[in-house]
Amino acid sequence: MAEQGTAPAGCSASDALQPLSLSSLHAAVPRGLTLAQWLTRLECQHPVSIDMGLSRVQCVARRLGLVGPDARRLGGRVITVAGTNGKGSTVAMLDALGRAHGLTTATYTSPHLLHYNERLSVNGQNVSDDALITAFEQIDSARHTDEDDGEGVVSLTYFEAGTLAGLWLIAQQQPALAILEVGLGGRLDAVNIIDCDVAVITTVAQDHAAFLGTDIENIGFEKAGILRAGRPAIFGSDGLPASCAAHADTLDVTPQVLWQDFRWQSDENEIDTGNAEPRWTWQRLISPALTLEALPDPGLPRDNAATALSALVAAGVTLDESAVRHALATVKLKGRMQWLTRHARDWCLDVGHNPHAAAYLAQRLAARDQRSGRDAATQPRWALLAMLGDKDAHGVIEALAPVVDGFVVATLEGERSRLASELASVVRASGGSVLAECDAVSAAAQWLVEDAAVGEVLVCGSFFTVGAALTWLEADA
Questions:
Q1: Can you give the pTM of this predicted structure?
Q2: How many CA atoms lie within 13 A of 269 on its CB side?
């Protein structure tokens, strides 16, 4: 791998960044814009918000030197993570594990919860506004610059421009480990212009039906599009569609599969009570065989933790037990089973927005109830739910209903939102109780604090739901 090292302790992201190598800007590039102004510009510069395909983004990437025969690598090793659920937690644990082993790291993820800067981190720190502005200027200049490729000015979506900005900044930093999260699908996602050294598929389920369809085998094929011939592939589930393994076979790739080539198990002496910290064991069953015992619970899915460990080994990292324990004990990820205490209530915030994610969330909450002996009569759990219109609200509500005692539904901002009244109808049709219908997440949170009986609050349904709730909770803390 590339030379190892860590950012100086206590440095901000901007301090830790290496100097950026800049090209002169095209005359069409606006100067002096703030990050917010750049993001507004990017939202409006392409006719549609999602435009599947790689030709436009590859063209600009070639002009930037990110792809092509003379392209500069992003760093020492590149791990690309695709999947319906579990991508964010897998990336977070890969990053924490990499840094705990002394590697410089960079991550690109999407979407963000509160600030756009969350999408790109270097050595565990979000990059600064100034770095992103510089990157957007370079991408805008490249899309205007016709370098005899005959393409002229290239139009990019918000996500494509953001992905190119992230990749450009990562390439400037040359981290030992670059970790990229696919946005949607895999084969035609902008991230997939980069040839990864290790490909990870966490899970495959139905989501984004308008773009990926509802055929699970086709969805699996799209996810498997990130695989590369002769490069390791890690499957974070043994229940992936057959199309994933079939595509791997066409590339002469033998994937490493959870429960077949690696696994995890709860330690025999693990006591699931509030008085003992859960411990678990990870095992790699193929050569080189490896067992790590008494690992701390990362507070994130252990399937994803086991997958991250396997991906790191596949990337050439020799695991150190103490480093692994430190990483798993300290990893943090906002919006994934994130617990906060505010207004004399415990709030659990989770970005789960499809039935598969909701079922996992319900399983975790049911286990928590069993440990604590929660009595719904005296310790109710309310769900603050707001969702986008293209998501399976019925499936999410059905999965959550057994662990929720009542729903407060809200309308999200934007044209893709589902009205609170529509969510309320789905809740009632599923046999659930609707406590209130609110026109915003903040209003729903306020209602829960002022009018609901004291109890736990589960906030879920969308990144937008959790982001709005976090903003309200932190502002009102």
A1: 0.90
A2: 4
